[in-house]
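2024-03-11 09:14:02 DEBUG pipeline.ingest accepted 1 chain
2024-03-11 09:14:02 DEBUG pipeline.ingest length=249
2024-03-11 09:14:03 DEBUG pipeline.predict start
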Amino acid sequence: MGNPEGARIPEEQRLGPVLRRRDQVQPGTTDQRLLDSEGDSEWVHTDPWRVMRIQSEFVEGFGALAELPSAISVFGSARTPADAPEYEAGVRIGKALVEAGFAVITGGGPGAMEAANKGAREAKGVSVGLGIELPFESGLNPHVDIGVNFRYFFVRKTMFVKYAQGFVVLPGGLGTLDELFEALTLVQTGKVTRFPIVLFGTAYWGGLVDWLRDTVIAQGKASAKDLLLFHVTDDVEEAVALVTKEVGR
């Protein structure tokens, strides 16, 4: 319909929370554009439509996870083979966390994530997988009981933190490092409180800890107390005990 012939275009226009003036005033109304549009489907790829998709992912994630018991997020490499020591450690960690009264949340993929989910399921606990849409998507592993797939990494990472009381981080690659440093940043800046982070595998994580201490902290890019934001261990029982102690279990 557009603007009726002869109708005066106002100098100021309010479209919901948006204010438009002078040459930025649009003809017609939002309802007109909604009801009159037809044919072109490019609108589903516009940023305003993406906002709705993002909102829907938050709603679905919150709805699926809102009734979870206390949980711990376990991270680690999707490339960890089933016969690797880290895989066996992941299974033991998943079991021990359930026995300590926690649900287990992972990224839902193979490798170390599958191991933790397997341990949680074998201990008859709640096994959660938060997947992500990727070009090489492999789907959720078979040990996931509650699964949610996300399009957007930042929505998924919100769920990892919101519904977990702490992190256990097995050896992993760039995705694992991303999740680890996201958590460290949130704790360091006080965005989350009482949030234990345990790195499992002293040989694997030792070089990173050395670099943080001898380079990042030594050059004044972080404080020495930031090394207290996480623990490093090779012992499954100690990892679970650290999580249990810091969340008041």
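2024-03-11 09:14:41 DEBUG pipeline.report The first strand starts at residue 12 and ends at 15.
2024-03-11 09:14:41 DEBUG pipeline.predict end
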